[in-house]
Write a structure and sequence with these properties.
Helices cover about 25% and strands about 20% of the residues. The chain is of the alpha/beta class and about 150 residues long. The strands form two sheets. It has a five-stranded mixed sheet. Strands 1-2 form a two-stranded antiparallel ribbon.
């Protein structure tokens, strides 16, 4: 089993098989628009622009589970991120990352790199074979992952 075995909902509620991303390096992030860490969108977009042509994708999963810091609809969140941070990477439907209602993808990610998701902007780096290569804490700046992304 690996990340490619999961299906998630896109920002319009349609099913997306993560097998669509086979052969790419992925960064999976739970995000929020009203969080002190929201400015990380700038650094995430910079990583995306730098490495996208080399097979790098960012999968953004808004999560309202931490102090309701991702309010509004997915469309409102998408509009905010596009307008304020000029993000171009893929955004998906809102999910829960902890507890009994946690999205199955996040249950799997936490099994591979154990621990509860501590906050918004927890990051999971996935290798080109769909394996969880690294877990990076919420407060860690995305640019600290440059070496790991280049290695993969």
């Amino acid at each position: 089993m690996n990340v490619y075995d999961f299906t998630v909902k896109d920002k319009r509620g349609n099913d997306v098989s993560l097998s669509e991303f086979k052969g790419k390096v992925l960064l999976i992030v739970n995000t929020a628009t009203k969080c002190g860490l929201t400015p990380q969108y700038d650094a995430l977009e910079a990583l995306y622009e730098k490495y996208h042509d080399q097979g790098f994708e960012i999968l953004d999963f808004p999560c309202n589970q931490f102090l309701a810091q991702a309010p509004g609809t997915v469309e409102e969140i998408d509009s905010f991120c596009t307008m304020k941070f000029n993000t171009k990477f893929r955004r998906f439907g809102k999910i829960k990352v902890n507890g009994k209602d946690a999205d199955p993808l996040y249950v799997y990610l936490k099994e591979q790199k154990p621990g509860k998701i501590e906050w918004n902007f927890a990051k999971f780096l996935i290798d080109r074979e769909g394996n969880v290569a690294e877990r990076v804490a919420s407060r860690a700046k995305p640019e600290t992952m440059t070496e790991s992304i280049e290695r993969l």
